Amino acid sequence: MGTAEDTAAVHAEGIVKRYGPTVALDGARLTVRPGEAHALVGRNGAGKSTLVSVLTGMARPDAGRVTFGGAPAPGWGDTAAWQRKVACVHQKSMTVPELTVAENLFLGRLPGGRTIRWRALRERARELLAGYGVEVDPAARIKELGVEQRQFVEIARALSFGARLIILDEPTARLDAGGIDRLFGRLRELRAQGVAFLFISHHLQEVHELCDTVTVFRDARHVLTAPVPGLAEDALVAAMTGEAAGPTRQRPRGARPAGEPVLRTRGLTADGYFAPLDLTVRAGEVVGLAGATASGTTAIGETLVGLRAPDGGRITVRGRPVRTGSVPHALAAGIGYVPEDRHREGLVPGRSVAENATLTVADQLGPMGTVLPARTRAFARRMISALDIRTTGPDQPVSGLSGGNQQKVVIARALAREPAVLVAVRPTNGVDVKSKDALLGVVREVADAGSGALIVSDELDDLRVCDRVLAVFHGRVTAEFAAGWHDHELVAAMEGLAAAAGEEAAPGPAGGGREPAPHTRTAQGTEGAAP
Ligand SMILES: Nc1ncnc2c1ncn2[C@@H]1O[C@H](COP(=O)(O)OP(=O)(O)OP(=O)(O)O)[C@@H](O)[C@H]1O
């Protein structure tokens, strides 16, 4: 007769969930109170996503119970009843991209029997969105929206079903600073109206910014629930890892002797994305390319690896020209690639960890005889240990790995060919704090062994491992920072404030020493980086 349970937005206890030999949840529990912003954190594979599946009626637990406001959770398969209780906004959209906002809002509950009055539907959609303070055109197709607007539509949709608990699974992963501010602002307003949030994130500073309570899962079990204020980050990391927290951050390195250029671009440009770029990455060097979501940095990365054809300029690897606009040629030339979107460009779900870790191009999937299983497995074993991949072994299908562990397999695969230069776009996206260090350490080792690395990211932790960082704003390199930069300098440069900040930020020679773009504070206004 726990009163806490009776009033809880959601209460779960004794939850057990097995996938074959894997115990994903082992007697796990969680209580979220109405109006609470509750963080759920844990290392990759700790069981967070599995709990979300159980709390949303997507997975049936082997044992345990879930209640909403003290009442038992809806029956298995009663989707409509679950939707009235809880919704999850995933990193991957759960909306239908080809349909309009209005259609998505009323999907599954369109008035049946007679013809649909689209104009009236759009009007209702407009009212519904306005009611939640969301300014999105109901006639726009979902695929035309940015991540931020799409998430707001999903939140509004959940609330309109009556849900008073919303689960956010790494909602900030693809938002820039302005987008995160607006999302958090909206969440705070909704909380004041009694809506509860369960917030899953690997960004502990966001947990501090948004949440009042945090729960830590480790190895399929609940290990801690505590108020966020007053909880030291060390204690949180210790709860996640089960070890006393050591120095988790990479220490910035001083200038180190760099070797011959391994990657060079001259006048490389893509119209509407980035201005002519002269970039040099030397052997032994890790170079960072820092920029907000639409700064053009991702397009630069994609061009280097052949995914995007440039409108001008040249790329050379160890002095040899690379045919641009071709992934196979870039790979053959020695450019390794860690893509941003592992779901789309990353993995073959049904194949094993070992196969995915070693198959660099899709056409190698055909004749499996060309791959030596023993070598493949030996390499996979090495990577499983170096990158701390949580798996039952090299033969496990990657579809059975947690999201963060899948990302590590993508990185293993890029390393399998021993590239001359590794290009990694936001490599630690979705990776837990402890694994981040391991993974960035591996990138460092690749450089120490004589290759070069380029890290394209707006995550300061990713960039800390770099020997130097080039800040990109609106498609141009606006500043260069040697290791040892201060967070605020680099953040200012990414937001286009390098000159205004006026600190040490010399115009980057790699960018041709151009002036910073004449923009003032517009972190969120990076709309396409047209030079
Ligand atoms: N469909 C599945 N089949 C087999 N194993 C699975 C499946 N889904 C999850 N698992 C396993 O369950 C465990 C928990 O995974 P889960 O996805 O819940 O972790 P997580 O905490 O969300 O991790 P991440 O931070 O990487 O997203 C992992 O060991 C994973 O390999």
UniProtKB/TrEMBL annotation:
Q: Which domain of life is it from?
A: Bacteria
Residues annotated as domain ABC transporter: 10-244, 257-499
For region Disordered, the annotated ranges are 501-531
Asked if Nuclease is a keyword of the record, the answer is: no
Protein name, as recorded: Sugar ABC transporter ATP-binding protein
The record, for SMART domains, names: AAA
Q: Which GO molecular function terms does the record list? A: ATP binding
Q: Which InterPro entries match?
A: AAA+_ATPase, ABC_carbohydrate_import_ATPase, ABC_transporter-like_ATP-bd, ABC_transporter-like_CS, P-loop_NTPase
One Pfam family it belongs to? ABC_tran
Keywords, comma-separated and alphabetical: ATP-binding, Nucleotide-binding, Repeat, Transport
